[in-house]
Amino acid sequence: MKRYILLFTLIFFTTGWAWAQRPVPTGGCTQEFDCYRFTYHGATAVEGDLMQLKFSLQVRCDELAYVAFELPEGARAASPASVYHGNAPAYRVRNGVSSEQGPNEVETPFNAIQFNAKSNYALSGGQVDTFAFNLTQADFQALSTMRVRATLRSEALKGNENNISGSQQVVFDLNACSPPTNPGACVIQLEEASFAFAGATDNGDGTTTVRLRIANKLPADVSSVMIETMETTADLGVAGMNNGGVYKTADFQYKTTIDQEANLIVFQGQQTNGYANGTADVFAIIVPTDLYELSPYFQMTVNAGGTLTNTGLNTISCEDEPITPLPVELVSFEGKATASGIALTWTTASEENNDRFEVERSKDGNSFSAVGEVQGAGNSSVTQRYSFTDASADAGQHYYRLKQVDYDGQFEYSKVIAVERAALAGASMEVYPNPATSNYIRVATPGGSDAILQIMDRNGRTVHTQRLAPEEREVQLTVSDLNIPKGLYYVHLQNASGKQTQKLIIQ
């Protein structure tokens, strides 16, 4: 039986279009406006007592004057204040500034770390920059939400940073958008050293930064660290530098050497005094995102006083071996919280002797129980799409995995994904995915009464009408059946409780 790797795409995003003066959306990990696209990529634990937050900003209109990220009142971002931003020389970083600053400062209505664009740099016309900074654990926990404010330079007063226009402020729910973590769970403990997964960040450019934490338990200082990937790639790198560059962390310094043919990065110690007796350091490497999704497995070797300690670490299973793939070629597995429950969808490109998928759920990521079953296609060489809605999932974070069962009873487990379901404030309609990038659109409804579902284009023309029975809580539509072009649409739901409307972007 041919085996394949299981790929996952876990999607959490909310999209909207609005003018700056309209109500500020809260909680979406991606928020879109006429001039801006804000994305919060989550927070990752790094060395010491720090959390690293990462954002990206796309500017579609005039030039960016500054972007500011809220800090707790009276606090500052942890040193170094600016871990990284996409065009390092292009910004001045002001740490812990607000509208109470002097007249020559750009105003922000809350305490923040600001990235102020220099006069010779223009972020506009759809360009994207990435911004990251550190917070202490205490400051991060003090911010359940974070305000982010971007402001454009006035076209008439370009270059005068004290006269700016085109402001947009958004609010991110840090807990909802941060990737779920289980501190201490993804660790390989050996007598001489421990090796741990410290988080991964999709950089949005086809690469992913993976952070690996290595603690040296020996009394001798670390002299070198080697990290090897399973697959050969020409894009293997170290965060923030070229081959042969100097890699600095909070306490230590290394010279990096990258051997693309051997899939190997070597961190040669330049200043590692004290990297011993249980001290840990974090190594950030860059790999292609598609490679990381296929092979999230790394071989690590630490040299301390001539003693070599080696292990493999799978950042998904947290074991020292690669994941055993499923006997079907799964190309996607997505989860999203809706009004009617948690909607899971997955797609296979081929199947062999596939009897069924059993959907299993867990609250802690360790103990699973079955919540549903979906019949497989048996033997197939064409794309098959599956869906399952877990209507019994309550508010909170849930972990899901697929148990793929063959006709002969043999089975394999997928890796685990996590979906957060917020407490529902009321019966509401959900439209997803949004923007719609494939042929399928789902509309989750409150149910309980007869309803009429309508889709209208931006000119007010009705392109689809459908009556819903009280028990119908989810409707699947296809763009091909609707026979509508790409663009902006409005989804209306009229039931006994009133009328709800959501925008839908078809791409």
What does this structure look like?
The protein has 4 helices and 35 strands. The protein is mainly beta. It has 4 domains: 29-173, Immunoglobulin-like (Sandwich), CATH 2.60.40; 187-315, Uncharacterised protein YcnI-like PF07987, DUF1775 (Immunoglobulin-like); 329-421, Immunoglobulin-like, CATH 2.60.40.10; 430-506, Immunoglobulin-like. Strand 11 and strand 12 (193-202) form a beta hairpin.
How many strands, which pairing sense, and closed or not: the largest β-sheet? Answer: 7 strands, antiparallel
Radius of gyration: 25 Å
Task: Quickly give the structural class.
Answer: mainly beta
> Tally of extended strands?
35
- How confident overall, as mean pLDDT? 77
How much helix is in the residues? under 10%
What is the end-to-end distance?
38 Å
CATH architecture of the largest domain: Sandwich
Could you say which overall geometry the principal axes of the C-alpha atoms support?
Answer: globular
CATH class of the largest domain: Mainly Beta
The number of domains? 4
CATH topology of the largest domain: Immunoglobulin-like
